Amino acid sequence: MNNGGQKWETVVGLEVHVQLATRSKIFSGASAAYGAEANTRACAVDLALPGVLPVLNREAVCMAVKFGLAVGAQINRESVFARKNYFYPDLPKGYQISQYEKPIVSGGTLAISTGGAHKSIGITRAHLEEDAGKSLHEDFHGMSGIDLNRAGTPLLEIVSEPDLRSAAEAAAYLKKLHTLVRHLEICDGNMQEGSFRFDANVSLRPRGEKKLGVRTEIKNVNSFRFIEKAVQFEVRRQTKILDGGGAVAQETRLYDSAADETRPMRGKEEADDYRYFPDPDLPPLLLEEDFIAAVRASMPELPEQKAARFIRDYALTEDDAETLTAERGTADYFEAVTAACGDAKSAANWINGELAGHLNRENLALDQSKVSARALGELLRRVNEKIISGKTAKEVLQRMWNGEGESADEIIAKHGLKQITDDGAIEKIIRQTVDAHPEQVRQFRDGNEKVLGYLVGQVMKNTQGKAEPRKVNTMLRKILSA
Ligand code: ADP
Ligand code: MG
Predict the structure, then answer these.
(1) Is 160 in the pocket of ligand 1 (CB under 6 A)?
(2) Ligand nearest to the CA of 231
(3) What is the rounded average pLDDT for all residues in the chain?
């Protein structure tokens, strides 16, 4: 266990930067699309050249409100943009426009579950801000390049309360948030491209103590697995310091995934260092009730509501409901398969089982599946109707996956895979099998029950697996005891 043992309690608070999926920047009309040639996408406003004025992007505001409503937060009718002043090469204008004292979203909660335990994590605030440019340290020899394309890209910074008590809870919170922002379609969630970035604040305190301990802030982590490892490392490091009677230094640390350790980066700034003041170029943002109502009306079904509905309407287990609602596309696929086959349980089993196997082998996402939801649904319907067995269905799915015709019926007909349902036909094969195995039949009649399994296997073989084993079993028993 890495929860600080008995003596210390782990406390984690997370700051997440969600890049909003708007077409243009937060204060200018420049394109916010990722991947353009360096320094071709930052306009005069993004760079704050003299004489230009920022104009707030309405789409970014809608997205922030959407998020606030999704976590049950307070949407502030008035919020204020402030300048956060600091120098850094990727911020040539010398300040970042952010929200400070009056953010657009306050409060709210996110429910997480770890190892079956449910917990509600408080959200302190979510505010709108612009991103800075990017320093490129790897592309040049002995020099760093600056790409300002990202300058002015809209971000929603979501700050949690220090409510998390372990590395696992921190990872669960981040995954939940990641799912939510993609469901809301306010962020593409691409972590390689930096669309979803996070910092973890970690401290320890004696168990039972109310006051928070001194924290460090871990930056530069870009995967759920690494944030868990980084927090675990930090807990071990701080435990050692405190156990030895030392004091943790408040600082910013970088996580090095290769060495699996955090290292000091700089002393932590205090808010005072930034000389925040309201941006004189931007009036306070005032939201009308009508605007908020319109955003509310446009909200999609939330992952949790969807999961609850799946449990209620489709009688899914909590686990199935959770995996099937983690991605909006997966949930849609599941519902389409269920509609086509009329059996939610087998839809869930096949999507999470056999289909997931095919996808994983080729490293594909569900939206790249070579078998459509409708085609899978029709296949499962044939299983339910007992036209083919589950085992045969796997073979048919493999053939569909290989591109041998789109419809299950086509493949079943072409390869003669239909189950034999005609009792007369099965009986004929049973009698032939019985005649061919006089020795085993004698043993069975002498009371050796185990031979029956062997004989069933022989019959199944003679039907090329196209009879129902249970039915064969019953009929065989009857014939043998006649
Ligand atoms: P900043 O890091 O920008 O100074 P805050 O002081 O508001 O901002 O804190 C940011 C994050 O750090 C929040 O998620 C908060 O919950 C968390 N945090 C603050 N104090 C502690 C602490 N002692 N231990 C763990 N997390 C903390
Ligand atoms: Mg911070």
Answers:
(1) yes
(2) 1
(3) 93
